[in-house]
Every structure is written in C-alpha cells, then in structure tokens.
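Working notes for the structural subgroup meeting. M.R. asked for a predicted model of this chain before we commit to crystallization trials. I am recording the input and output together here so anyone reviewing the notebook later can reproduce the run.

Input as submitted:
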Amino acid sequence: MTKTPINLQDLRRRIYVKAKAEPTWRFWGLYVHVCKMETLQEAYQMAKSNNGAPGIDGITFEAIEESGVESFLKQIQDELVHNTYRPMPVRKKEIPKDGGTKVRVLSIPTIRDRVVQGALKHILEPIFEADFQSGSYGYRPRRSAHEGTAAAIFVKGGQRLPDPCPFAGELWKWPSRAVVQQGASGICDGKVAG
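Returned structure, recorded in token form:
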C-alpha cells in the first residue's frame, strides 16, 4: 500500500496538531520533509518576498531566475540529501543606530542559505508554535511586538506601562544554545536538531 503525498500546508497542520495534543511527543524523520522540493520552493518564495540583499557570494534573485530556479533548488536538494550542504560565511554590513552614534552589524546570509533556513523554519515552526501561550507575541507568525504592547495596555485598563521589555538590549547575552536546546527537546531528528 502506498500513501498519497501530503502537501506542505497539510504536513505543517498535522505536525502542529500532534505537538499541541501531545506536548511530550518526540518528532523524528523531519529531515526528509526539509529536503522535499515543495518545501524548498516555498522557502525560496519566502526568501524572495523579503527582497533581501545578496550574501557574500553576490548572487541575486535575478541571477538565480535567469539561470533557473528549479536547477538552483535541485542543487540545494542534492546537497541536503547527500549531506554535503555547508552554509557559507555571512556578509557583514554595518548600519547606523541611535541617530548615528552607534552601529549595528547585520549578518546577511546567501540566498542559498536563506532557502535552507526557510525550509527548516517551515518544518520546525509548528512544533515550537504549539508550545507558545496565546498571549505570546514576540517572534511569532502574524503577530508583532506592537500587538503585544497593545494587548498589555488593554489588560492594564488602558494605563501606560513602563518599557514593555526593559532588558531587550540584553537578550543577546542569554545562553542561546541552551534556550534553543530546551525548545528543541521535542525534536529527535539529529539531522535537524543536532
């Protein structure tokens, strides 16, 4: 008996429902879904919609489309399937911050790496999303920090609150590896969470 393939949206819905219904469930076999052409195509469209600058390799979306998106994605898929994919270094770009008195360094990945990151996001996001509380707003799809602030002000009866996140500038000091490992505890696929 063969199973009919399911599309990416259905897969994401099934992953979310399972993660929500069984919080202790451990997901495995996710890497095969990251490598699927449909996932890579969706990730490419997501990266393109952000209209980002090229990475260190200088390759633009226009150049990719001129030479063929399918062959570009097929090359990524082959590297992922054969475990030869390696991310490239990021391009560093300094931009002014706080009215020009400071600079912030942006790290710009190549489009190729953005596609792989997007594919991983498509597959892993439903697992993490199931763990969030309904009142969480930061770094979530279709939600913003402004909505979170508005919701907090509403809860407080319309009173102006102090800075909603007084330690926001310190978040980069958190041990991110430990935070990610805690969040990834439901993922048992070493190729994805290893």
